[in-house]
Amino acid sequence: MAGRWDDLSFEMKELHHQHLDTGIAELAELYDILKKRAAPTAIATVELPLKASSVFDATVRFLENQIGRLAQMEGRTVEVYAAGKLDGGERKALENRIGRDATASTVYVILGSAS
């Protein structure tokens, strides 16, 4: 299959589609919990099952997109950070804010209240 995407031409030789379990609970429920506590912001941590780096990164992006979509509908802001991708100072600041050390699988979700 050949095609174009903006200015890029491509040819797909193989497509392997695979459904993966993200290990994340219901995201709408997480969003509702954060929303109730956002005055002006709320922070939560999500512990993802340790998986290959590419799967972990894709799961973090999925989490950010889904929570972000819910927040955007209500004029709220959302920030999502994988602890392992933060520099030492940023990670320590968030650890102090939540009151516990992060692990390699910790993801921070910060929801800001509506303007």
Descriptive key words:
115 residues, alpha+beta, three-stranded antiparallel β-sheet, two-stranded antiparallel ribbon
Describe the structure.
The longest helix is centred in the middle third of the chain and has 21 residues, at 53-73. It is globular and about 50 Å long. The model has no long low-confidence stretch (mean pLDDT 84). Helix 1 crosses helix 2 (53-73). The chain is an alpha+beta fold. The strands form two sheets. It has a three-stranded antiparallel beta sheet with strand order 3-5-4, with helices on one face. The chain has a two-stranded antiparallel ribbon with strand order 1-2. The protein has helices at 27-37, 53-73, 88-98, and strands spanning 2-5, 8-11, 41-47, 77-82, 106-112.
Unreliable spans are none
Q: What's the order of the H and E elements?
A: EEHEHEHE
The radius of gyration is: 17 Å
What count of domains describes the coordinates?
A: 1
Mean pLDDT: 84
Distance between the termini: 46 Å
Shape: globular
- Helix coverage percent: 25-40%
The total count of strands amounts to: 5
Count of separate DSSP helical elements? 3
User: Strand order across the biggest sheet?
Assistant: 3-5-4
> In percent, how much strand structure appears in the residues?
15-25%
- Main beta-sheet annotation: 3 strands, antiparallel
Structural class: alpha+beta
Brief overview, please?
With 115 residues, the chain is of the alpha+beta class.
